[in-house]
Design a protein that fits this description.
Elements (H helix, E strand, L loop, with lengths): L2 H15 L5 E3 L6 E2 L2 E2 L6 E3 H11 L2 H11 L3 H19 L4 H23 L5 H22 L6 H4 L14 E4 L2 E4 L8 H17 L7 H17 L3 H19 L1 H20 L5 H20 L10 H8 L16 H27 L5 H17 L5 H4 L1 H16 L7
Antiparallel strand pairs: 1-4, 2-3, 5-6
Amino acid sequence: MEVKKIREFLLWSFFLFLPTQLGYHFWPKEAYVWGLRLDFLSPTIYLTDLLILSLAFSSLSLLEKWLKKEWKNKTKILNLGLVLAFLVLNIIFSSRPLVSFYRFLRLGEFFFLVFFLKRFQFSLWPQALLLGNLASSFLAWGQVFKGGSLGGIFWWLGERSFNLATPGIALAQVGDHLLLRPYATFSHPNSLAGFLLVSLFLLWGARESFKNKGFFKLALLFLGLTLFLTFSFAAYLGAGLVFIIFLGKKWSGKGVFVGLLLCIAVVLLSIKVGLVEQKSLNERLVLAQNALVLIKKRPLLGVGLGNFIPAQAEMLPFLRQDVNLLQPVHNIYLLIASETGLIGLLVFITMAVKIFWRAGNVPLHYRAYAIRPYLLILFLGLFDHYWLTLPQNFLLFAVVLGFINTGKNGILE
């Protein structure tokens, strides 16, 4: 079989299985805090990792050519050397170097995926991504109707075992009824919601690649209904802001007014069904305060990649009274600053702005579809950590960056 055919099969499989988290966890002592083992700290090999590794092996000649070309650019080599030196120091001085090294490998995988998608066109990715999202959505509805996980083959794809009585399970109160918020194969309904929302805009940007327009619109409607079913406040708000922009362009001032009313309705609905809970707000506030304390203690290098939870537990031992706080801060900017210091945050912001301006090189009639999912991720990152910490969202973030930088991968053609 030709290398091109193998590469296309791997890419199709990657986009199909992107919403899943089939993987094998390792549990070294570094993955435990207060005797509890945490998925956030567990080195894990996922099916999607194996697919990306296979893509890397199928692209060795491309990587070799790229390295030979970039080696002549002394400025890039110097910048890369400085970044690598910083990351090595970050790993060495972290409280759990093994966890930091694992996150470093994940970061390398992230940038390889961006690199790869910038250079290869693959016209069938929208169909594969849509199928993956449809499977997740059917599973989500099944969980809600059953009031718990479905098990069976879905367990192998990453579904957790839970029901309405599981401690800490995410619920929404609708009137006098408690409704299970769906997880599908994700770690939390908010993570599922963010993935669905960004996927919706990626797929809408690639709508011309679908021949059956009726099926495509019905499929997007189903994904949208599943997004609504997650009862994710941040995703609702993100969708509302996108509608403000969209309606503003269509109806001018009236569109902005309607969009604002929609956002207000989202906030009121979220309060009514119990999405904006005082306990959740208190936890998020405490986590943000702890992040600021960690930044103050380690302002330059940070506490180490992936080390927010153990550093928080070691430096602020009073948290042992509430194990619900054994999670990353719900803000990617505070998370980056606490784990990689202000230097890391500055690098991230610089790269984010640079990527945004590069999108200006994309032809005008394509630009909105290239940049909108990216801006959504940056916005949703204000409210949660999953774009950096959970496998499906993390890799979808890389996909979006790869597409923004190329203008060739079906979003734009």
